Amino acid sequence: MRAWQVHRPQPDVAQALRRAEIPDPRPAPGELLVAVDACGVCRTDLHVAQGDLPAHRSPVVPGHEVVGHVVALGEGTTRHAVGDRVGVAWLRHTDGTCRYCRSGRENLCPASRYTGWDADGGYADLTCVPEDFAYALPDGYADAELAPLLCAGIIGFRALRRAALPPGGRLGIYGFGASAHLTAQVAIAQGATVHVLTRGAGARELAVELGAASAGAADAAPPEPLDGAILFAPAGELVPVALRALDRGGTLAVAGIHLSDVPSLNYQRELFQERDLRSVTSNTREDGRALLEFAAAHRLRVTTTPYPMAEADRALTDLAAGRVRGAAVLTPG
């Protein structure tokens, strides 16, 4: 089959990503073989290609926002049939027995493994997924619209929960890419007032189109104190900026898997008065199901920039350069 592989991570993603012909995967017991109909391009793919995340498998096929249809069943699968449309996301394995899994925190499982990092992902014609980690998908969305929901949507949904926003609260969103533009819509639908702080003029325009109450520069102060905030941009220098924007008792959730260094924090200005700073680590399958159920009940406007699968290197390069509006999505052809 045709696939893209990361052989040697490096800053130049066009060099890190190589086109290859590799053998078709075969589903192991309990797995589904899925033909890829669309694959979102996530910033985590960029971190894998550039080496911000240590290599877990080399070479590896990136991509973990996969919408496809089942073409073969591994031994012992029981819930799916050939032809079913399914989603393949970042989290693909947990041990199910550790104290984190037993307490509903499988995202913290020490034995967790991930699509496009520990196992080949969706920048290819075919991929495999454990049946227990495949998602049923809502109707009413095209394949390319669903793909970003499978990581950008899920992680944003968990980050919103981690931000502990009270009902009708004031939410600040720092950075406005694939995940943020979906999270903003979820928050607004839940009654929040959303203020977007981001560097790109085009992203600020999109934020206002989607219902944000304001949109300003990433390092600007929002027009009112915030009850909660989410940092999507992988820029550690924005952590103190966002903390200073919080009202008393507010919470900042950092949503990225990778973040540049955070400057030293001034306790009085940035943490005092019970401001909280939280990280977000992966997601649970419950997060995924909850986000997809929300998308079924509330029609989200998924803004995508399409690329042919044959131009995955260009898609990643554009993402690195900030030239993508909404979410980049690869489609075969």
From TrEMBL:
<feature type="domain" description="Enoyl reductase (ER)">
    <location>
        <begin position="12"/>
        <end position="330"/>
    </location>
</feature>
<dbReference type="InterPro" id="IPR013154">
    <property type="entry name" value="ADH-like_N"/>
</dbReference>
<dbReference type="GO" id="GO:0004022">
    <property type="term" value="F:alcohol dehydrogenase (NAD+) activity"/>
</dbReference>
<dbReference type="InterPro" id="IPR011032">
    <property type="entry name" value="GroES-like_sf"/>
</dbReference>
<dbReference type="InterPro" id="IPR013149">
    <property type="entry name" value="ADH-like_C"/>
</dbReference>
<dbReference type="GO" id="GO:0046872">
    <property type="term" value="F:metal ion binding"/>
</dbReference>
<dbReference type="InterPro" id="IPR036291">
    <property type="entry name" value="NAD(P)-bd_dom_sf"/>
</dbReference>
<dbReference type="InterPro" id="IPR020843">
    <property type="entry name" value="ER"/>
</dbReference>
<keyword id="KW-0560">Oxidoreductase</keyword>
<dbReference type="GO" id="GO:0005737">
    <property type="term" value="C:cytoplasm"/>
</dbReference>
<comment type="similarity">
    <text>Belongs to the zinc-containing alcohol dehydrogenase family.</text>
</comment>
<keyword id="KW-0479">Metal-binding</keyword>
<dbReference type="Pfam" id="PF08240">
    <property type="entry name" value="ADH_N"/>
</dbReference>
<keyword id="KW-0862">Zinc</keyword>
<protein>
    <recommendedName>
        <fullName>Probable alcohol dehydrogenase AdhA</fullName>
        <ecNumber>1.1.1.1</ecNumber>
    </recommendedName>
</protein>
<keyword id="KW-0520">NAD</keyword>
<dbReference type="InterPro" id="IPR014187">
    <property type="entry name" value="ADH_Zn_typ-2"/>
</dbReference>
<dbReference type="Pfam" id="PF00107">
    <property type="entry name" value="ADH_zinc_N"/>
</dbReference>
